[in-house]
Amino acid sequence: MSIVKDIPASHKNIVSDAYPRPPFERQKQPFPGLACNMVPRPDHGETSYKGSGRLEGRKALITGGDSGIGRAVAIAYAREGADVAINYLPAEEEDAREVIELIIAAGRNAVALPGDIRDEIFCQQLVKQAAEQLGGLDILVNNAGRQQFCESIRDLTTENFDATFKTNVYAMFWITKAALDYLPHGASIINTSSVQAYQPSQTLLDYSQTKAAIAAFTKSLAQQLAPECIRVNAVAPGPYWTVLQACGGQPQEKLEQFGASAPLGRPGQPAEIAALYVTLASDDNSYSSGQVWCSDGGTGTL
Predict the structure, then answer these.
(1) Burial of 253 by CB count in 10 Å (0-12 exposed, 13-18 middle, 19+ buried)?
(2) Which three-class secondary structure state does DSSP give residue 295?
(3) Angle of helix 93-105 versus helix 68-79 axis, rounded to 10
(4) Which of 1, 48, 197, 279 is most enclosed, with most CB atoms within 10 A?
């Protein structure tokens, strides 16, 4: 005999029909793509995230803050009381303007810093400008990423391989190094790795390598910076519905069934992972460092 129970309102976000499930429409965008053009549009917590002052008075720089996970984190941080600077590519200005408006609506200082983080000099300027315009810096989220599928190593060009490593690994190194001139004791660095670091897909040869490098970077740097009381952690997302997937991150046939193989039967929405970044930045987790926290819809990768 089955028992049907009423579902509390607070739990409705994990009900199977609460978030979109595959199949999805085929939808190809030129890189880097815009979240506002996705169908269905990702949920970054624009209407759902409610803050509770966990990051009151903090100053955060988030790369890739215009869309996807970075956008969700920017919204969450602002509603938790932080001032937020976001970096993004100039082509993503339409998405970025929406994020800036949401940060301002939360009553926080918002700073827009467009530019290409594949350039070391720009990365140094980015950190300097963020710290100056925010009046300090005590949270760094290295989130921006490049993901372009390629069926065979024979077709993976040095140019594309280099672009992925410059975006995902070199920029993280340059930005973090520059940020150490500003980060005080008690600061937090959070990097975005991926389940691809541990279960790499055959079509993401270069991307998966960068995500493994990010996990190792996080664990090593956490030990270096522990004497300075600067914590370093990472989040490893599984299949999340972001524009990264629609602008070359996945073949169109895979995009149609994106997230279907996860135990929850769907991709995650950016709003569902933002709280992890809040938790790692919060003083509530002052003893957590060198960790890689996974969110993959039930696979239990880590």
Answers:
(1) exposed
(2) strand
(3) 20
(4) 197
Is residue 49 annotated as part of the catalytic site, yes or no? no
Q: Which residues pair with 88 in a beta bridge?
A: 114
Helix, strand, or coil here: 235?
Answer: strand
pLDDT tens, 237-264?
999 999 989 988 998 989 999 999 999 9
User: Which residues pair with residue 237 across a beta bridge?
Assistant: 295
Element (H, E) at 274: helix 274-281
What six digits make up the tokens of 178?
């520059």
Per the CB < 8 A criterion, the answer to whether 80 and 102 are in contact is no
Q: Judging by beta carbons within 10 Å of its beta carbon (0-12, 13-18, 19+), is residue 212 exposed, middle or buried?
A: middle
CB–CB of 149/250 below 8 Å?
A: yes
Per-residue pLDDT reduced to its tens digit, 35-47:
989 999 999 999 9
Give the pair of three-digit tokens for residue 55. 């990051």
Active-site residue, selected from the candidate residues 88, 207, 240, 277:
207
